[in-house]
Design goal:
By secondary structure, the protein is α/β, with parallel strands linked by helices. The chain contains 14 helices and 18 strands. The protein is globular.
């Protein structure tokens, strides 16, 4: 293995159980110091690839070679549920195989890197008490504290606010070691990557490209055009040969030999046709129906409980949402957006009233509204007023939930697939009030314009939290409530 190669896969195959191949004879290598984006459709096996590099998974066939004596650390998508009740110190101690003495200064250093230093000492604070965005920073910090030779980041921008993403981007630009990042955020990736590994969900092969993701999209586009052009030219020649063969065949005599030769040439040309690259499938355009007919306000909020400078604060606001009115909820990580949304969804938020009979659809960023032990079919059926299998399957298929996947347990799905199940549930639930907490997390960027279009057209009342400006810009927003500002909600200009 060359000194400058840190990871090499040779003929690696892997499958999740019988008849579920993920990788088939995959080959690629990564050089030291390179920053690589790992892309692919939801469920293609990107997180599986990290598991193979970490040694948590073993390939069925092939060889995985790592640079001699290298250390590897990964920042996963979510903090495991069995670690949520640890203190920050205990959580970081679990990042090491052996006991690290005097770990507190190391913790302070990495918390500063991920911009999670406040007025309080965080070492004894329970992980569960942090917001989703703050937990995302802790995940990143748990990898950085190990100072690894190879850093594996799985959707590191999920739940981060704008300041957090900017901070992470700068860190990765300055990072001197090797890094592989799974992300659906093209703009974020383009800021620091040297190349792209693209895991093709159809062929189960790995494609390796030089350049950022925008370069790769252009290369794939040109390749598709060349393949289609070549096939079109071959198809024209094939048809000409077949027409001539038919013409000569009717002449009889020696002309039949000419006809036979023309058919043989047509068959040879057929073999020259190339399999045109299949692109990732996107979800079908969809609508989230509204079942309840409410006259007057659907949701009214007069006050909210937030955290300012880490202290609980009651803030007076004036929000009144009717049908077809959309509210954008803003504020920095840790101010209490997720806590507020959870209280609204449960009907337990002080200072908030939901109109009687209004069904609430709630998309949680950690998917805790889903029972991970349910099958996808069971999860979708639970939200339907009347279970109609044909309707359920049709909606599921629109979100790429087909075949055996519909009978898979929620817990076995990728994070992106869980997100698509959550959206399918909203379609079948037909809510009058939609509460969405970071709905772009884990979702393939190809799906985002379709999801944005559905939310833009949603006819019920909606409360949205999102730190992705490009996504929000595609949705009609009638009011904005910034929890970090003193003023109340702002009406949007037409």
């Amino acid at each position: 293995m060359a000194d400058d190669t840190i990871v090499r896969f040779e003929g690696v195959s892997f499958e999740h159980g019988p008849r579920k191949p993920i990788l088939e004879e995959v080959d690629f290598n990564i050089r030291r110091g390179k920053k690589i984006a790992l892309m692919g459709q939801n469920g293609a096996g990107k997180s599986t690839l990290f598991g193979l590099m970490m040694g948590d998974l073993k390939p069925e066939n092939g060889t995985i070679m790592l640079g001699q004596g290298i250390s590897i650390a990964t920042a996963r998508q979510v903090i495991p549920r069995d670690q949520l009740d640890l203190t920050v110190r205990e959580y970081f101690e679990k990042s090491f195989d052996k006991k690290i003495y005097d770990i507190d200064p190391k913790i302070d250093a990495v918390l500063e890197v991920v911009n999670l230093i406040g007025h309080e000492k965080l070492h004894d604070r329970i992980i569960r008490s942090f917001s989703g965005g703050q937990q995302a920073r802790l995940l990143l910090a748990s990898a950085l504290i190990q100072d690894p030779d190879l850093l594996l980041l799985d959707e590191p921008t999920n739940n981060l606010d704008t300041a957090g993403i900017e901070h992470l981007t700068k860190f990765l630009i300055d990072y001197k070691k090797t890094c592989i990042v799974i992300s659906h955020d093209a703009e974020f990736l383009n800021a620091f990557t040297h190349g792209v590994l693209y895991l093709d969900v159809f062929t189960k092969k790995m494609e390796q490209y030089v350049g950022d993701y925008t370069d790769v999209v252009e290369q794939i586009k040109l390749r598709l055009e060349k393949e289609n052009m070549k096939n079109a030219q071959l198809a024209k020649k094939i048809q000409e040969n077949k027409d001539k063969a038919n013409f000569f065949a009717h002449k009889g005599g020696k002309m039949r030999l000419v006809a036979k030769k023309m058919r043989e040439e047509a068959e040879e040309l057929e073999e020259e046709k190339v399999d045109v690259r299949k692109e990732d499938k996107t979800i079908r355009p969809f609508t989230i129906p509204v079942s309840s007919e409410t006259i007057g306000p659907v949701l009214e909020i007069s006050s909210v409980s937030i955290l300012l400078d880490h202290k609980p604060t009651n803030k007076k606001v004036k929000v009144s949402l009717k049908k077809r009115e959309h509210l954008l909820l803003k504020g920095p990580n840790g101010i209490g957006k997720t806590t507020l949304l959870e209280a609204l969804a449960s009907g337990k938020a002080d200072g908030a009233t939901i109109a009687p009979g209004v069904k609430v659809g709630y998309y949680r960023q950690d998917f805790s509204t889903l029972n991970f032990d349910d099958t996808v079919y069971e999860s979708l059926a639970q939200v339907m007023e009347k279970e109609i299998e044909e309707t359920l399957r049709n909606v599921a298929a629109g979100f790429l939930i087909t075949g055996e996947t519909i009978y898979s347990k929620i817990g076995s799905l990728s994070e992106g697939q869980k997100g698509l199940v959550a959206f399918a549930r909203l379609v079948l639930q037909r809510p009058g009030l939609l509460i969405l907490d970071e709905p772009t997390n884990h979702i393939n960027f190809r799906h985002l314009p379709i999801i944005a279009a559905a939310l833009d057209k949603y006819e019920g009342a909606m409360v949205l939290v999102s730190h992705v400006p490009e996504f929000v810009a595609q949705i009609r927003i009638d009011e904005t409530l910034d929890l970090g500002k003193k003023a109340g909600p702002k009406k949007e200009e037409d």
